[in-house]
Amino acid sequence: MNASVDIAAIAGLFHRKYRQIEVRFDPENAVAWTYMNPSGVPCFSLDLLNELRAHDAAIESSGGCLLHNGELRQIRYYVAASKVDNVFSLGGDLALFVQLVQSQDRDSLMHYAKLCIDNMYPRLCGYNSPMTTISLVQGEALGGGFEIALSSNVIIAERRARMGMPEILFNLFPGMGAYSLLSRRVGMKRAEEMILSGRVYSAEELHGMGIVDLLAEDGRGETAVLEFIERHDRHRNGMQAMFSCRQHSHPISYQELLNITHLWVEAALRLEDKDLKMMSRLARSQIRRIGGNAPVEGQADWASEKIRQLAM
What we know:
Number of helices: 13
Radius of gyration: 19 Å
């Protein structure tokens, strides 16, 4: 354990109440669970991003340690999930993007983009501690939602999950890590094909590509996470070290992510009225999605259908 850990700073790490996220610690398995539970549209609002950064910064600064029942414990696994039914995250705050592009507010766009990678990069580095990061996707993960899922060591997805990058439909690209993260998993050419297609893929398709590591039956995502931990915990040290090798074998630096966000900001500022109208329509569709138009089992997935309609 790190002898320099600030005990006072981590004493209430998993007891703090947030407005946009829920956190809990499972002492039996040494698992930190962070659930996105935003009010309104389940996208990455500034409030959600700030709460995630505050919580994760505390974990990072403690070296992945916390105080549980008076005992200093090491977090072994960190799971990112969602409390929103059938949605992991719908990605960036499209309504905010429209406003900032219309006003040509470069600084605010850059602030948002940087906050995204400030959340992403520590996860890529395991919060500078010997922990394995897991994304549990139980619904739609679009744009930035797919990016945050990709930033984990392991992706576990229920069969109903759908993931994709629809940004090309409004003449933009996913600028907060998608290119780097997808290239690492499937190669540059395939990553470009996926981004330029705007397609939303099923969990089974992504499992076949090697992007999703483990498929779970619908409704059994959390159980699948615990079963994964039980199977691999004996070899946890070696597994975590292997995952750390990714940052040496196929490194993704903070500067790389930052450079790409600058490209994203400049591309966003060049969007035309027709592109912003498309983005606005998709933003309104996200709001209606939360208003009760969720997909019924057996119907076409909402995201794929909506994107198809918008592209017509």
